[in-house]
Amino acid sequence: MRAIKENSCLGASIEGIDLTKPLSDKEVSFISNSLAEYEVIFFKNQRIEPSEHREFALNFGSLQTHPAYPTVDGYPEITILENDRDNPSKIEEWHTDMTFREIPPLGSILIGRIVPPKVGATLFGSLSKAYESLPEKMKLKLGSLSAVHSFEYGFKESLAEPGGRERLKQALIDNPPVTHPVIRTHPITGRKSIFVNKLFTSHINEINEEESKEILSFLFEHIKKDEFLMKFEWEKDFIAFWDNRSILHKPDNDYWPQHRKMERITIDDTLRPS
Ligand SMILES: [Fe+2]
Question: Most-buried pick from 47, 76, 119, 200 (CB within 10 A)?
């Protein structure tokens, strides 16, 4: 088993492992460490069934269910992300998954099931590299701030659809707005990273509205600079496992109106961001 670093500031492909088989402790620890180190890792040509997807994910923590998406029959923890002519993707924004939760996920494991060729890449951005490049004065200021993340803010377009508020009523009740530090520290690597995203972060708490808007729009532009990014080109049976504590991502929806189907498992974290 080995990790081959991608030609960018983050990401590595893991080779020499078969995810249809149970993993040894050594393999689990190699994958956990690679995830923390490279922030997103990839496995190629892994023909795994939903049950094996589930077993693989369980090595890294307990599994979440998503309040808004459909799931694979018999596997409530496997979210289906499927788009075609009648159902275009609604996620266009850079984001970190489910930061509207008090304890946002540790990471997600996404597999390509139906993948049109040469389109529909996912872009990943390193929030730790983006943090490192900030001026010291700004790091200091951001270190004292916290921000509000909200399901309602992130799903405002779905909520505005006819019947949307009714359909998502329970999700709104279960997911009131939460506060996270603007800068968080990774529990394994100790690296600091920027922890705001355009999809779910509505405002910063400790400053006025105008300054909050100014800082957030600066950070939203900063974190998507090319130097912090990598592009992953999907094929069927490719898997991406990202560390939700230190990266953000964005789908490239250029495959639409072709049919694409992905399945995702999201793994719980045990610690609040700090
Ligand atoms: Fe996502």
Answer: 200
107-155 pLDDT, tens digit per residue, is: 999 999 999 988 899 999 999 999 999 999 999 999 999 999 999 999 8
CB within 8 A of 145, min separation 6: which ones?
181, 182, 183, 204, 205, 206, 207, 215
Q: How many angstroms separate the alpha carbon of residue 249 from the centre of ligand 1?
A: 6
This prediction has a pTM of: 0.92
Q: For the segment 206-216, what is each residue's pLDDT rounded down to a tens digit?
A: 999 999 999 99
Distance 81 CA to ligand 1 centre (A): 10
Is domain 2-267 given the CATH code 2.60.40.10 in the classification?
no
Query: Which residue ranges make up each domain of the chain?
Result: 2-267
Distance 101 CA to ligand 1 centre (A): 14
**Residues whose Cβ atom is located within 5 A of ion ligand 1:** 97
Q: What is the pLDDT of residue 91?
A: 77
Catalytic residues: 95, 97, 249, 264
Q: What is the pLDDT of residue 93?
A: 87
